[in-house]
């Protein structure tokens, strides 16, 4: 008798899970308690596997998004899916990874994203001198727990694949720029560096929940720095004992 009861319960659970994951996505969205920052249009498919033509988070449009649900996570109280996006967004953003929503809110893990550096610069504060920015930014997020407005915790890495930065006097060869990203209680920290035969540098940036930021950076000229640029160093404050020119910025985005 006990064996039959367990079999019935197992079949019932299997039926319920199957029914949930195969529901049309339109029906799910009609009743799901979605965050008010999230807007969705053009949904098709099912909760198990589908896509939306446009997904907007706050004021950011991510374009077309497709997903495949991981039903085993439903048993742990989470809705988790493998997600991919890459068309219809204005930033030429390409991304894939795992996102989910559980008892502690939204989260992401194993995310890989890329977009042109020129698109990122549209969100950056004004630069003191005009610079020619090119190349591709590649972001990898190992883990991220969302908490308004940014995140409660998270870590990842950012790589700027570029050869040079254009300046009004000459191009400066920099090579790849690599930075580590961390988030704790809505305080985002970025720390990175680069090295080339023309210049070495390090930088760090902190952004808090009030959208205030502070940034520190230094660079040291190397033997192959273009003469047109090295001659201009005389107009900067004197370097420290290690030959590093240091800068500090504070502001609000």
Describe the structure.
14% of the residues lie in helices and 51% in strands. The chain is mainly beta. Strands 1, 2, 3, 4, 5, 6, 7, 8, 9, 12, 13, 14, 15 and 16 form a 14-stranded antiparallel sheet that branches. Strand 8 and strand 9 form a beta hairpin. The longest helix has 20 residues. The chain starts with a helix and ends with a strand. The mean pLDDT is 88.
Biggest β-sheet strands, sense, barrel: 14 strands, antiparallel
Instruction: Give the beta-strand count.
Output: 16
| Coarse shape | elongated
Head-to-tail CA distance between termini: 66 Å
Structural class: mainly beta
Residue stretches low in confidence (pLDDT < 50, at least 5 long) are none
Helix content: 10-25%
| Gyration radius over CA | 24 Å
Descriptive tags:
253 residues; mainly beta; 14-stranded antiparallel sheet; two-stranded antiparallel ribbon; elongated
Compact overview of the structure:
Helix content is 14%, strand content 51%.
Give the secondary structure arrangement, pairings included.
Blueprint: H1 2-21, H2 25-31, E1 38-45, E2 49-57, E3 60-61, E4 64-69, E5 79-87, E6 94-102, E7 105-116, H3 117-121, E8 136-147, E9 150-161, E10 164-166, E11 171-173, E12 177-184, E13 187-195, E14 199-207, E15 212-221, H4 227-230, E16 245-252
Antiparallel strand pairs: 1-2, 2-3, 2-4, 4-5, 5-6, 6-7, 7-8, 8-9, 9-12, 10-11, 12-13, 13-14, 14-15, 15-16
């Amino acid at each position: 008798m006990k064996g039959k009861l367990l079999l019935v319960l197992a079949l019932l659970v299997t039926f319920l899970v199957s029914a949930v994951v195969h529901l049309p996505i339109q029906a799910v969205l009609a009743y799901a308690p979605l965050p008010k920052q999230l807007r969705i249009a053009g949904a098709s498919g099912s909760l198990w596997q589908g896509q939306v033509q446009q997904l907007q988070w706050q004021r950011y449009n991510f374009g077309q998004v497709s997903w495949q649900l991981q039903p085993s996570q439903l048993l742990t109280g989470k809705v988790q899916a493998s997600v991919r996006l890459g068309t219809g967004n204005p930033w030429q953003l390409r991304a894939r990874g795992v996102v989910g929503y559980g008892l502690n809110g939204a989260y992401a893990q194993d995310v890989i994203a890329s977009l042109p550096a020129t698109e990122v610069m549209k969100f950056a504060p004004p630069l003191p001198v005009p610079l020619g920015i090119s190349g591709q930014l590649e972001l990898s997020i190992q883990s991220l727990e969302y908490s308004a407005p940014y995140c409660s915790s998270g870590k990842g890495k950012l790589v700027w694949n570029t050869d040079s930065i254009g300046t009004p006097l000459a191009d400066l060869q920099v090579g790849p720029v690599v930075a580590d990203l961390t988030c704790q209680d809505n305080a985002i920290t970025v720390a990175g560096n680069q090295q080339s035969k023309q210049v070495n540098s390090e930088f760090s940036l902190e952004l808090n929940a009030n959208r205030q930021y502070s940034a520190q950076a230094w660079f040291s000229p190397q033997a192959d720095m273009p003469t047109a640029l090295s001659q201009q160093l005389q107009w900067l404050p004197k370097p420290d004992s290690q030959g590093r020119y240091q800068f500090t910025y504070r502001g609000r985005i």
